[in-house]
Design brief:
Layout (H helix, E strand, L loop, with lengths): L4 H25 L1 H8 L6 H24 L6 H17 L2 H7 L10 H26 L4
């Protein structure tokens, strides 16, 4: 059984939607749990506000990915894939730098997230390439 780029794109967007929504909900409704327990960082009112803001943003990107997961190749889909790729690349260095700067105390505070961001970035890069090839009608 072969997997088409459209099928793997649907799976990638679904996984991303569920993951972003779940982490976003935790950040929005349990910022202290996210900051203290997951990130092992010092809690503060400011950190909670920022976590809640990020939570809303993650839930929004999760909803977007869920809503478009079955859409076909189009300029809009390529734009969504591009934004998802940019998001993963942009987020990727934040947690390791926080660890190196002493904000996070353990490897568990950032390694799982960093691995997730690397895998998702690779998935979105591959999907974006597949979408561009499909729209141009050529194969490589």
């Amino acid at each position: 059984m072969t997997t088409t780029p459209e099928t793997s794109r649907k799976v990638l967007l679904t996984i991303t939607a569920v993951t972003a929504s779940a982490i976003g909900a935790l950040a929005l409704f349990g910022p202290d749990v996210l900051i203290q327990t997951v990130k092992t960082a010092a809690p503060s009112a400011t950190a909670n506000v920022m976590a809640r803001t990020v939570g809303v943003l993650l839930m929004a990107i999760g909803l977007l990915n869920f809503l478009v997961r079955r859409h076909g190749n189009s300029p809009t889909m390529r734009a969504i894939l591009t934004v998802n790729l940019a998001l993963q690349i942009g987020i990727m260095p934040i947690d390791p730098l926080a660890f190196l700067g002493g904000t996070y105390a353990t490897l568990g505070s950032f390694v799982p997230n960093t691995i997730l961001h690397i895998l998702l970035a690779a998935g979105f890069a591959w999907q974006l390439r597949a979408a561009r090839v499909a729209s141009s009608g050529t194969t490589r």
